[in-house]
Design goal:
5-stranded antiparallel β-sheet; Methane Monooxygenase Hydroxylase, Chain G, domain 1; 5 strands; alpha+beta; about 50% helix; 2 domains; globular; Thrombin, subunit H; about 160 residues
Length: about 160
Amino acid sequence: MYSIGDTVIYGTEGICEVTDITVMSFGGEKSEYYILTPISKRQNTIYAPTDNDKIKKRMRSILTSKQARKLIDSLPMEPMEWIENSHERQDAFKNVLLCGSPEEVFSMLTALYKKQNEQEAIGKKLHASDERFMRDGERMLFSELAYALGTDTNEIVREVFLSMR
């Protein structure tokens, strides 16, 4: 259970603050909800039921600075296995972004970088959906690492790509 003031990761929304926990009635049924405010979009509000297992899988505590440093120091990571079927790959990548650990997101990104290099070597590009998953994964992961380490995203990008070479 999270408390008001906690900073969490919520699916593809990224870093959010738990600004309230309240009982609300939707459709005549009362339930307890986390009220989340995305750090990057303070005008948005997310209502996440506290008793929904599917929602709980999308929500996790943000990395500590020690965990973030350990993750960066463990690079490069083994890429996840490439899935040739684009629909199956999209489902797998979507699941990683929604519910995956930071290590799983890094593994997905490593697979995408590897595939991108292979495609560029033969004069091709990544599939548009793969490019989108790569951008979303980078945005989510790099912003979390920057937040945890008290630095900016550009510094994290430089450090991660230097580590992966």
